[in-house]
TrEMBL record:
The chain crosses the membrane at residues 26-44, 131-153, 180-204, 216-238, 250-268, 456-476. It holds the Pfam family DUF3526. It comes from Algoriphagus oliviformis. This is DUF3526 domain-containing protein. The keyword Nucleotidyltransferase does not apply. PANTHER family: ABC TRANSPORTER PERMEASE (PTHR43471), ABC TRANSPORTER PERMEASE PROTEIN NOSY-RELATED (PTHR43471:SF1). The keyword Coiled coil does not apply.
Amino acid sequence: MKTRSPILLLAAQVWKNILFRPGSKALILVMNVLLIGFMIVGFLDLNEHQRQVHGFGEDVRENWENSPDKHPHRMAHYGYLVFREKFPLSYFDFGMDSYLGNVIFLEAHKQNTANFSEANLSNGLLRFGEISAGMILQILVPLLIFFWGYDLITKDRENGTLKILFAQGVQGLELIWGRVAGLFLASLSLVGLPLVLGLGLLFFQPENELLGQSLIQYLVLALAYLGYFLILALVSVLVSAKSQSSKSSLTTLIGFWLLFTLVIPKVSQVLGQSFFPNPSKIEFDSAVEEEIIRQGDSHNPNDPHYAALKDSLLRAYQVDSVQKLPFNYSGFVMREGERLSTETYLSHQKKLQETFLDQQQVIRMAAWLDPFLAIKLASMGLSGTDDAMYQSFKDQSESFRYELAQTMNNLQIDLISNRVKSSSDPSARLTQDHWKSMPDFHQQFLPLGEVLSNEIGSLLILALWLVAGVALSVFYSHRIKVV
């Protein structure tokens, strides 16, 4: 008759002991209810957000197309509103979504910020709703794993069971991995059902164009969390193996939890901002405006830059006044001004984004010391709620804004006479058919390859933590003290 593996026997023992601890069943039930509840709340919030975004977007488009006949430059200043959509997996981990703007007003000559973030508009009840399933998995589940695992070996040493296990031929590595396996299985009782139901929610979204990408990202995300819990189980058992008593083991693990979830994340954030300080919004806008003023004011006919531009055009077309040019000179100046101001803004924006990336790099470096940071970064990235997805939306909005402004300028250049003295002149108005020809804004999410590329570092860190845990378990398996 074949004897069962000691690892399986030890794992089953750990699972049974945890399950029958006072309060464990209640904790498992509460954790499952919390995770499933917050996933459903996040899912409903996501669908409501998408419904509102599409409804507002249709209203904006209808108002744009039905705008009365007018001068195209006035239409450029009339502007356009674009709304940020959420990625289908954002119900799992809210990440930065609650603190980022959702609406941008696009107009000529000016880049506006995204406004109306949920954090600024929410009341206390909605702020409570910002707790996500990802947040619970990152912070609360580890605390339970540490609570269940702190005495898995110290208790055997204290009550003399460890001597009996070794006397029966159990090896140190079998002891460690039996305890780890049992603790990991116990953690699955907390997250297994919610993770399966979370996957099912993807099939109930009204828009499933991104279903394939979302499924792949969700599976990678679920595997990352399972790896995270296995790391925590390893940490718990190894600390228990090294500690002299259950009390010291629990104290050490609570210290690790505070270090991982509070100290290292906050210190890394402060260090990133200290090493790579970013300008305030006022400083940024002032720097952009000063450079644009130095380049020239397209609304000032006596500006040196545009005066020189006018002279060069008159010489090129061999005419003595702008009224004799074969195109609308005012529209040409507006197009040139839009080009210069946009180039200036983008150059400053690029430097600002590089500063933010440098700050994030400090946090990513700190993740080598902290698996919590690694799983947090991976979770936000794979859920589509990180800065990369938000920056993609801003870049697309700016491209659309520039295209809209230049389209209106080109309409003025091509269709409005040079002899028109004012934009209020009836002959300077274009029909609304020209507004309808302008394409609508359609946000594109980052493709799967780019998302995985962005988070490969965080996933690699988790993998290396696992490898380090396995190596330490082999190392300490020969050094477990019986007394």
